[in-house]
Amino acid sequence: MAVMHGPECAECGGPTRVSPNPYFRTGLSVHSEVAECRSCGTTAFVPVAAAPRVAAEVRRTLPEVVRGLLAKRSNGAAK
Q: What global pTM score does this model have?
């Protein structure tokens, strides 16, 4: 994934760069990207609202996944 230039730093107003969050999908991490200030080094999460695809994935719950797998399995067995 490419590193992109992000919004200004909330702490110092300096430029930031946005890069993939190496901890995304491990533990409780739900932010796919982080922004790091190139001036002061502050790191912040890029809001989930900025990444609608990721927000949709995070909202998927285990029961939905299980129902989907069971539906696929029963459709496959019926054929």
A: 0.51
